[in-house]
Amino acid sequence: MKETIQNRIARLLTKSSRTLSAAESCTGGQISHLLTTVSGSSAWYVGSVTSYATRIKEQVLGVPTETIRDHGLVSSEVAAAMAEGVRRVMNTTYAVTTTGLSEGSDEWGNPEGTVWIGVAGPNGTVTRKYHCDLGRTGNIRRFANVALYFLAAYIENDIK
Length: 160
Fold this sequence. Notes:
Layout: H1 5-16, E1 20-24, H2 30-35, E2 45-50, H3 54-59, H4 65-71, H5 76-90, E3 94-101, E4 114-121, E5 124-131, H6 135-159
Parallel strand pairs: 1-2, 1-3
Antiparallel strand pairs: 3-4, 4-5
Protein backbone atom coordinates (compact mmCIF):
# COMPACT_ATOMS: atom_id res chain seq x y z
CA MET A 1 0.00 0.00 0.00
CA LYS A 2 1.34 3.42 -0.97
CA GLU A 3 2.13 5.83 1.87
CA THR A 4 -0.16 8.88 1.91
CA ILE A 5 1.44 12.30 1.97
CA GLN A 6 0.09 12.99 5.45
CA ASN A 7 1.57 9.70 6.71
CA ARG A 8 4.90 10.62 5.12
CA ILE A 9 4.85 13.97 6.94
CA ALA A 10 3.91 12.20 10.19
CA ARG A 11 6.82 9.79 9.81
CA LEU A 12 9.28 12.63 9.12
CA LEU A 13 8.11 14.76 12.04
CA THR A 14 7.90 11.86 14.49
CA LYS A 15 11.37 10.61 13.58
CA SER A 16 12.89 14.09 14.02
CA SER A 17 10.78 15.19 17.04
CA ARG A 18 9.60 18.32 15.23
CA THR A 19 6.25 20.08 15.11
CA LEU A 20 3.91 21.60 12.54
CA SER A 21 1.20 24.24 12.31
CA ALA A 22 -0.92 25.55 9.44
CA ALA A 23 -2.67 28.73 8.35
CA GLU A 24 -5.25 28.19 5.66
CA SER A 25 -7.27 30.63 3.67
CA CYS A 26 -8.58 29.15 0.41
CA THR A 27 -8.30 25.56 1.64
CA GLY A 28 -10.56 26.29 4.60
CA GLY A 29 -9.14 23.62 6.90
CA GLN A 30 -8.58 20.84 4.35
CA ILE A 31 -4.86 20.63 5.17
CA SER A 32 -5.64 20.36 8.88
CA HIS A 33 -8.26 17.71 8.16
CA LEU A 34 -5.80 15.60 6.18
CA LEU A 35 -3.09 15.89 8.83
CA THR A 36 -5.41 14.95 11.67
CA THR A 37 -6.55 11.77 9.91
CA VAL A 38 -3.20 10.32 10.96
CA SER A 39 -3.39 8.43 14.24
CA GLY A 40 -1.16 10.10 16.83
CA SER A 41 -0.98 13.42 14.97
CA SER A 42 -1.32 15.31 18.25
CA ALA A 43 2.31 14.40 18.97
CA TRP A 44 3.54 16.64 16.13
CA TYR A 45 0.60 18.70 14.83
CA VAL A 46 -0.04 21.70 17.07
CA GLY A 47 -2.96 23.37 15.30
CA SER A 48 -4.09 25.83 12.70
CA VAL A 49 -5.67 29.17 11.93
CA THR A 50 -8.29 29.25 9.20
CA SER A 51 -7.69 32.86 8.20
CA TYR A 52 -10.42 33.37 5.63
CA ALA A 53 -10.92 37.02 6.62
CA THR A 54 -8.24 39.59 5.87
CA ARG A 55 -8.43 40.94 9.43
CA ILE A 56 -7.48 37.50 10.80
CA LYS A 57 -4.43 37.42 8.54
CA GLU A 58 -3.46 40.83 9.90
CA GLN A 59 -4.53 40.60 13.57
CA VAL A 60 -3.78 36.96 14.39
CA LEU A 61 -1.00 36.05 11.95
CA GLY A 62 0.64 39.48 11.82
CA VAL A 63 0.55 39.90 8.04
CA PRO A 64 1.32 43.60 7.50
CA THR A 65 -1.52 45.62 5.96
CA GLU A 66 1.03 47.11 3.56
CA THR A 67 1.98 43.64 2.28
CA ILE A 68 -1.65 42.91 1.43
CA ARG A 69 -2.14 46.36 -0.09
CA ASP A 70 1.05 46.24 -2.17
CA HIS A 71 0.93 42.61 -3.32
CA GLY A 72 -2.66 41.39 -2.92
CA LEU A 73 -4.03 38.56 -0.81
CA VAL A 74 -3.05 35.96 -3.41
CA SER A 75 0.70 36.52 -3.45
CA SER A 76 4.01 35.01 -2.47
CA GLU A 77 4.52 37.77 0.08
CA VAL A 78 1.24 37.06 1.90
CA ALA A 79 1.78 33.28 1.84
CA ALA A 80 5.25 33.81 3.36
CA ALA A 81 4.00 36.24 6.02
CA MET A 82 1.20 33.84 6.96
CA ALA A 83 3.68 30.96 7.33
CA GLU A 84 6.04 32.99 9.48
CA GLY A 85 3.12 34.31 11.54
CA VAL A 86 1.49 30.99 12.32
CA ARG A 87 4.85 29.40 13.05
CA ARG A 88 5.52 32.16 15.58
CA VAL A 89 2.01 32.07 17.12
CA MET A 90 1.98 28.28 17.46
CA ASN A 91 5.71 28.01 18.30
CA THR A 92 6.31 25.16 15.84
CA THR A 93 9.30 23.93 13.87
CA TYR A 94 7.41 24.19 10.56
CA ALA A 95 4.35 25.90 9.17
CA VAL A 96 2.43 25.51 5.92
CA THR A 97 0.00 28.03 4.47
CA THR A 98 -2.33 28.61 1.53
CA THR A 99 -3.80 31.77 0.11
CA GLY A 100 -5.62 31.70 -3.19
CA LEU A 101 -8.77 31.54 -5.24
CA SER A 102 -10.69 28.30 -5.41
CA GLU A 103 -13.21 30.14 -7.57
CA GLY A 104 -13.55 33.60 -9.13
CA SER A 105 -10.72 36.02 -9.87
CA ASP A 106 -9.17 38.95 -8.03
CA GLU A 107 -8.22 42.55 -8.79
CA TRP A 108 -4.58 41.51 -9.29
CA GLY A 109 -5.41 39.36 -12.30
CA ASN A 110 -5.09 36.00 -10.55
CA PRO A 111 -7.48 33.58 -12.22
CA GLU A 112 -9.70 31.04 -10.50
CA GLY A 113 -7.64 28.06 -9.37
CA THR A 114 -4.56 30.05 -8.31
CA VAL A 115 -2.91 29.41 -4.94
CA TRP A 116 0.28 30.54 -3.26
CA ILE A 117 1.68 28.06 -0.77
CA GLY A 118 4.09 29.08 1.96
CA VAL A 119 6.33 26.91 4.12
CA ALA A 120 8.40 28.30 6.99
CA GLY A 121 10.97 26.46 9.07
CA PRO A 122 14.50 26.60 10.45
CA ASN A 123 15.98 27.13 6.98
CA GLY A 124 13.80 30.10 6.10
CA THR A 125 10.59 30.58 4.19
CA VAL A 126 9.77 29.39 0.69
CA THR A 127 6.71 29.87 -1.49
CA ARG A 128 5.27 28.23 -4.56
CA LYS A 129 2.54 29.28 -6.96
CA TYR A 130 0.22 26.61 -8.29
CA HIS A 131 -2.75 26.65 -10.63
CA CYS A 132 -5.44 24.12 -11.46
CA ASP A 133 -8.94 24.22 -12.93
CA LEU A 134 -11.00 21.61 -11.12
CA GLY A 135 -13.89 23.70 -9.78
CA ARG A 136 -14.16 24.93 -6.21
CA THR A 137 -14.16 21.57 -4.42
CA GLY A 138 -11.55 20.02 -6.69
CA ASN A 139 -9.30 23.06 -6.40
CA ILE A 140 -9.46 22.97 -2.61
CA ARG A 141 -8.52 19.29 -2.53
CA ARG A 142 -5.68 19.75 -5.02
CA PHE A 143 -4.34 22.87 -3.27
CA ALA A 144 -4.17 20.97 0.04
CA ASN A 145 -2.36 18.01 -1.50
CA VAL A 146 0.12 20.16 -3.41
CA ALA A 147 0.81 22.13 -0.21
CA LEU A 148 1.50 18.91 1.72
CA TYR A 149 3.90 17.62 -0.96
CA PHE A 150 5.70 21.00 -0.94
CA LEU A 151 5.91 20.83 2.87
CA ALA A 152 7.22 17.24 2.84
CA ALA A 153 9.98 18.16 0.39
CA TYR A 154 10.99 21.09 2.63
CA ILE A 155 11.09 18.88 5.74
CA GLU A 156 13.04 16.14 3.95
CA ASN A 157 15.62 18.66 2.79
CA ASP A 158 15.82 20.19 6.26
CA ILE A 159 16.43 16.96 8.19
CA LYS A 160 19.08 15.54 5.85
